[in-house]
């Protein structure tokens, strides 16, 4: 069902991007928890960043990219 459609460079890029998203979400969560930074949808942004990062890491492990599966060519 999920054919491998990215190479090693694409997998590495998705893995690093996913980790960066999760680290950024943790930083934002700390700022929100200490009330250093506040905005209305802050915790939704944290949840979205964690979900997106986790999905990118899953794509890297599976060797599959949803954007490429939709027919778009990506530069990596």
The share of residues in extended strands comes to under 5%
Number of strands: 0
- Averaging pLDDT over every residue, what do you get? 94
Which structural category do the helix and sheet elements fall into?
A: mainly alpha
H/E element order:
HHH
Biggest sheet, in brief? none
Low-pLDDT residue spans = none
Question: Shape, please?
Answer: elongated
Helix content: 55-70%
- Calculate Rg over CA atoms: 15 Å
Taking the alpha carbons of the first and last residues, their distance comes to: 22 Å
- The number of distinct helices, counting runs of at least 4 residues, comes to 3
Protein described:
By secondary structure, this protein is mostly helical. It has a domain at 21-69. It is 67% helix and 0% strand. It is built from three helices and no strands. It has helices at residues 8-33, 42-62, 66-69. The model has no long low-confidence stretch (mean pLDDT 94).
Describe how the helices and strands are arranged.
Blueprint: H1 8-33, H2 42-62, H3 66-69
Helix pairs in contact: 1-2
Structure characteristics:
3 helices; elongated; 67% helix; 76 residues; mainly alpha
Provide a short characterization of the protein structure.
By secondary structure, the protein is mostly helical. Helix content is 67%, strand content 0%.
């Amino acid at each position: 069902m999920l054919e491998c459609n990215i190479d090693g460079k694409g997998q590495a890029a998705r893995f690093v991007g996913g980790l960066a998203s999760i680290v950024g979400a943790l930083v934002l969560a700390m700022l929100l928890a200490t009330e250093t930074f506040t905005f209305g949808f802050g915790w939704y942004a944290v949840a979205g960043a964690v979900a997106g990062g986790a999905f990118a890491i899953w794509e890297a492990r599976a060797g599959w990219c949803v954007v490429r599966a939709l027919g778009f060519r990506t530069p990596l």
